[in-house]
């Protein structure tokens, strides 16, 4: 199983002068990335500062739900713009995300969930949003690496078509990892047909081949939340990212395995409760009363 | 419910064994029913209940003034009294209600507000039901008028018609929220590749109510052909059901009966009072245009939802025939096109009025018209 190295927390990409330190501190920002010659100054001001040349970054869009009301489509499902597939495809890359306003917090949550090295450029509203979520990320961060839990191995040829396939698997909460050759430890290995005219159908065929009953994770009650499942020793962690700008009122989660101990941490002022925790049929289920931008659920054996 | 109970019961409901032997159903979705509830040993109440294959119909010309839409409360009172007495054979209406309910019961009244505010479970009818329950000792605070969507209910304002203390509750406080549903009682099925494959039962049904009164209307339905007892008690009590339709295909044929036959819904639904003061003959369950409203001016009473809906089929078909509209049984693709809401000779889906017979085959009641005993009265 691939292990991720423990990485830094998502950082605010900041090119304003050190005089803005007070504003950042008031917002709760600690992690920043600045020009190399400014690192010492910012460190002296009490920040966890690191150097970044934006040119070394892979630019990716801000995560969001794009309603696209004027675009005809086969289903009424919301259009989730997620970077998760890009993160899985390029786990070692540095990612720069231009995320204005509230989407800064979402960008940080998404990057943290996938354990990637991410730098977020934002505006004043975004600084506040980012600062508000940073405390949660600090509290959840561990120097020990988290290993992703996957059911499916995808032989990725790097093509845009396969990228779309990965995107659709992510959006449907089908847990996968990129493999160079079939991995016998996984439940299913697939090689996407890059010439397939319908990636959606192909993704559904993968789901059917796996079988819903064999999925390590299921979500019920929302189409705008994407989950990532990781393992550290015998502890399981569910990262839940809500891509919409509104809370989801009630999200049911099912994870394979019996975990009597379930702990929740969440972003947002309105702290959710864990409801209806059940161990049944080889799985553990629980409901989050509210799903803000980001929640982390840690599961442990008794 | 402890874990052992849950597992035992879940195991007792494996993948639903469909189709029914001998029935001409093929290619049905695979349903998995998960519930910890079992039917009571007596089997006295529920669907088809105490009076299988029996329906009482009570009509009254002056039950509603169609120019003003005003419902005549005293006439409704007489209709309900007649219907309940004839159903139970008990002359005193209070005795007829007592034969179904005890003072200790917590009663859910499942209304239908999808056509509100122009066609819905009339507040006057619901109020009369509430008055009868209170008259036999059921506490107002143990009576719950409920529907899935609060915004639809709000247009009716039932609270104005019933005594203080009676609850009026919309289940989905925000659309698609699952918090009002029981995550341990659900039907799981993948219709079209949707990722959320669970439809959960209203939590009140599994955890609060001891009995349910179903109060549907007489309506045409763009997917299921008609919507009466079965559709109201099934789709109206579960989350995430709209997913059963896509393009011209609807799975109402098998989904309605499957949902309705789940415990504890099946056992707790003890009485059906179909409110036909107003009806919808095309475009249902909503009322897109007043021209599709009509006035059957009748009510049906029974415990057998299949028998009642079988009669409803004839009501809607007869009205559509009068209006020169295509049959609810019409399955040709040529009639499926946009604008069906305003064109009685077009469909949105290939409709499935066969859902009523299907539900009958699941044990919910009697579909064969020759076996249904109907008592009809006109006041």
**Which bin fits the share of residues in helices of chain B?**
25-40%
Structural class of chain B: alpha/beta
Q: N- to C-terminal separation of chain A? A: 24 Å
- CATH superfamily name of chain B? LarA, N-terminal domain
How many E strands of chain B?
18
Topology pattern of chain B, helix = H, strand = E: HEEEEHHEHEHEEEHEEEHEEHHEEEHHE
Give the topology string of chain A: H per helix, E per strand: EHEHEEEEHEHEHEEHEEHEEEEEEEE
Largest sheet of chain A: 6 strands, parallel
**Span between N and C termini of chain B?**
49 Å
Number of domains of chain A: 3
- Which two protein chains have the largest interface (Cβ within 8 Å of the partner's Cβ), and how many residues from each? A-B, 26 and 24 residues
* Contiguous uncertain segments of 5+ residues of chain B: 1-22
Choose one word for the global shape of chain A. Answer: globular
Quaternary organisation: heterodimer
Spatial order of the strands forming the largest sheet of chain A: 3-2-1-8-7-4
Outline the structure in words.
The complex is a heterodimer of chains A (302) and B (379). Chain A has 302 residues and is an alpha/beta fold. Chain A contains seven helices and 20 strands. Chain A folds into three domains: 11-140, no CATH class; 150-213, no CATH class; 217-300, Maltose phosphorylase, domain 3 (Sandwich), CATH 2.60.420. In chain A, the strands form five sheets. A six-stranded parallel β-sheet of chain A has the order 3-2-1-8-7-4. In chain A, helix 1 crosses helix 5 and helix 4 packs parallel to helix 5. Chain A is globular, with a radius of gyration of 19 Å. Chain B has one domain (37-378): Rossmann fold (3-Layer(aba) Sandwich). In chain B, helix 10 (305-322) runs antiparallel to helix 11 (355-364). Chain B is of the alpha/beta class and 379 residues long. The model of chain B is unreliable at 1-22 (pLDDT under 50). In chain B, the strands form four sheets. In chain B, strands 2, 5, 6, 7, 10, 11, 12, 15, 16, 17 and 18 form an eleven-stranded mixed β-sheet that branches. In chain B, strands 1-8-9 form a three-stranded antiparallel β-sheet. Chain B has a two-stranded antiparallel ribbon with strand order 3-4. In chain B, 27% of the residues lie in helices and 21% in strands. Classes of the chains: A alpha/beta (302), B alpha/beta (379). The interface between A and B is medium-sized, with 26 and 24 residues.
